[in-house]
Amino acid sequence: MNNSTFFDRIYTCVKAIPKGMVASYGTIAALAGNPRAARVVGWALHVNPDPDAIPCYRVVTKDGRVSVAFAFGGENVQRAMLQADGVAFDKAGRVKPEFFYYG
Questions:
Q1: 63-87 confidence digits (pLDDT tens)
Q2: Which of 4, 13, 58, 76 has the fewest CB within 10 Å, making it most exposed?
Q3: Which candidate in 56, 59, 82, 95 is catalytic?
């Protein structure tokens, strides 16, 4: 697999997540063509070449948790960015299911 091409597909999929929605790493991997590459999605987002155009903060774990290692300031920053988009969280701090995007 050509990583640069796969990364490009990942970035295209992340750009497609509508404002007010999130997608899981696994969903993005599947949409990009390799459902077993969720960790690769994480790496691609870690090296995101254009955070202003590629909203990687909209990618969360499959159970709705934000990343504790979020590259732009930590989990509280990611949560605040999602809330600014209109995403709601449950009492456990997870994104509510109705805010998940599946492509």
A1: 999 987 766 676 688 999 999 999 9
A2: 4
A3: 56
